[in-house]
Amino acid sequence: MNKIKRNFEYYKDLVLILIEKELKVRYKNSVLGYFWSIANPLAFAFVFYIIFQVIMKVQKEQYVIFLLAGLFPWQWFSNSINASPMILFGNASIIKKLSFPKNIIPLATVLNDMIHFILSIPIIILFLFIYHKTPSLSWFYGIPMLLGIQFLIIYGISLIVSSLNLFFRDLERLVNIAVTILFYFTPIIYSEAMIPEKYRHLIYFNPFAPIMISWRDLFLSGRMQPQYVIISFIYGILIFVTGYFMYRKLSWRFAEVL
User: Fewer CB near the last or first residue (10 Å), C or N of the chain?
Assistant: First the structure.
């Protein structure tokens, strides 16, 4: 029992050290610091607002907050998955020198991006007030629930991508392309209601659509549609189990290919 406790404390400290390292690397010599965590989705929100509301005259009320409610959680997914192929390569020296579960490395990256997402929520609150709306009490249970589900999805994918990329180096480019394509196939810059009804069922085949819809519903109305939350949770479990299984199958060869 004491050994398990010692191992847990050791791994917890290692995760914290890796997260701290990621934060230092991200903000090294950065004057604006926190601003860069939110600049990307804010810039995209501005561009999409100009294109769809100013130029194309798409009728969507409160479109800015609608965009931010989807772009901020998507940024967490995008940052973590795009970083996944090189996570293990970037920590090759640690992997070779220390004996520890290598899945801690992608874990630290995903948690780091999750922290940045959490820190972006005050911006959503600010825009809610601008549009004369207020956060809902349902956020107290909804945010932790969706954080847990999205963490399972992202961490599972990160384990798959980081493990496979050691053996198939072209995966990095494929992941970048896939993330870009998925962005436009996920209801972020448009609502699921805008999808023609005969194609709307295809949402359920996109692992990221239900969780993104749930985030937006929670932020904007304080409600979540149970079917989307349940489907997201199922995807989270399946992807996490698949990722962990793949990691366990390949991890014994990590040191020899790095």
Answer: N
